[in-house]
Amino acid sequence: MATAMAAGSNLDLGFIPAPAKPEVLIRRLGRGAVGIARVRCDIDGLGPLDSPAIEDAFLISHHLAHFHSEIRVDGKPVARPRDIAGLTTIHDFRHDIACHMHSAFDTLTFHLPRVVLETVFPDDGPERFEDLDIEPSGCVADPTIAAMAAAILPALAAPERISLLFLDHVSCALATHVVAAHGRLSAVRTGGALAPWQERRAKEMIAARLDGEIRLADLAAECRLSVGHFARAFRQTTDTSPHQWLLQRRVEHAKTLMRDGTRTLADVALACGFADQSHFSRTFRRLTGVTPRAWRHRHAAVGTRAGTMAGAVPRSADSRPV
Questions:
Q1: Per-residue pLDDT at 187
Q2: Cα–Cα distance between 13 and 27 in angstroms, integer?
Q3: Most CB contacts within 10 A, which of 61, 204, 221, 303?
């Protein structure tokens, strides 16, 4: 649990008078901070929400269930669809937003300051982020945001077990997608791969912290790149994301530990940075096609046969029966 990092920021969602105060998971990304929270209220008729502070930031609200509300932006009503479950609302905190809640609600929110979007697309780069081309507080159908919400929801239930690299990956991917899908850019980036020294250093840093306790911003800074540029260049160079490369290294390290046969699968899981044996088994099977138990049994059997063959003494011609 973290608190807002600047006075006047809506990062702590303090303008939402829900009975249960939402816990906001906050990650630094570039020059700003991304806040992720699940905001729920089980009672109807909550009434008006406090007017959020004017701020150069956006609130991405993905609605997990339908609810009824009225929203006015700068005094003008905003049309709401008949059913908003599965849709996403993008609030622009530079406007005066008034919201009246008539029914219970369940929403996953991402607080994105403009500086985070500018970090993804730096002003001094080949392309420039100008603004989001949206209807403030209007609803959009965005399958990518819906997929990211589905990916982050299980993690919010146990934040102490979340890999920092996973959080940074999701935050960076969300910011990049929001700009790409809903933003106005002055140019299109041509892209580029990491230099050999950058690729080597990034992989060394990830491999040294298999527990995932490393930030995307740290990797980018070490390579002297912005977060967004680094994430794109890493994928172009390795054909995968930093988080997926971390998972692959964890699995390879797990194979090494399982070969000696002395560790339990639970011990192997913890030694390789997985939250528990269940998480380890799911990831291992997804990347290899078999469970850790089956893999160890198969390779233990191969090792046993190899050892038996190596220990056998061939009979010489003199030892043949007469």
A1: 52
A2: 15
A3: 61
pLDDT for the residue 34 = 93
Note whether residue 255 is domain-resident: yes
Model pTM? 0.66
- The total of other beta-carbon atoms located within 10 Å of residue 225's CB is 22
Of 129, 232, 132, nearest to 182 by C-alpha is 132
Beta bridge partners of 61: 89, 109
CATH code where residue 69 lies: 2.60.120.10
According to the model, what pLDDT value does residue 314 have? Answer: 46
What's the pLDDT tens digit per position in 20-53? 778 898 888 877 889 999 999 999 988 898 889 9
Count, residues in the chain: 322
Rg (CA), the chain: 25
Cα-Cα end-to-end distance for the chain: 83
User: Which range of residues forms the domain containing residue 171?
Assistant: 25-185
Question: Which of the residues in the chain have pLDDT under 70?
Answer: 1-8, 121-128, 186-191, 301-322
Helix (H) or strand (E) holding 39: strand 32-41
Residue located via tokens 């300051």: 113
Residue 156 backbone zone (phi > 0: left; psi -120 to 50: alpha; other: beta): alpha
**How does 196-223 read in b/e, with b if 16+ C-beta sit within 10 Å?**
eebbeebbeebeebbbbebbbbbbbeeb
The Cα–Cα gap between 90 and 129 comes to 17
Name residue, tokens 């909550």. 46
